[in-house]
Amino acid sequence: MPRRATLLASAALGLIVTGCGGGSSPITATPSPVATTPPPTPTPTPTPTSFSVDACLSQPAQNGNDSVLQLVLPDVLHVDLTRPVAFPNGRRLDDLVIDLTLSRLFLDLSKQSVNTFVNLPLNPDNSPRHFKPDFPYFGDARNATPPIPASTEAGFNFRTDPDSGFVRVDRMGMPAVATVLITPETKVAYNDSNPVDDSRFVFASVERADLEHRMDDLADDFKRLNLAICGTPN
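Now predict its structure.
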């Protein structure tokens, strides 16, 4: 065989053997490592602070020597006619009793005015007020805004109708207690009970637990507003 043919045959045989896995391994390029940015370290979620409301309930309610606890339990509103009448010594129709009650429940009254929430520009304008000079003093429902048809009025005579003509659906002697401190699952039992049950502290544990829960949720909001709360961290 001519030398040229012999060289070509040898080269072809080498290619076949290499293709079948024999001979030297093919050279492959090693890719350069890709630089990766490590993920940022997650910011740990702060552990929620729980608060005790002992100081809230024991602080003076700015009503004589009563503490806040003595003010809200039992759920009745007292009036001493030898003293000026204004909430919590009775109440005037235009007293913002919810704001005044919440200040006592949440704020440190040694640092914050009891009128702190009253002075916030959050309350809607309820003028003109259609108060009457005689009992029950409230204006007719049809004078409300927007007007309410006269046909929806109850028509009770507060002076002459018997007690059986009224049904208690909500206890509101001390405003904000039933609506803020009594949980929904306890509401019916609370409304069916009487203030004497409050004096026996029947609902005290429910009210305390709910106040602590609300304090835990709202404390950071109060602090952002630079309001001194009465709750103390556990």
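Residues 204-224 form the longest helix (21 residues).
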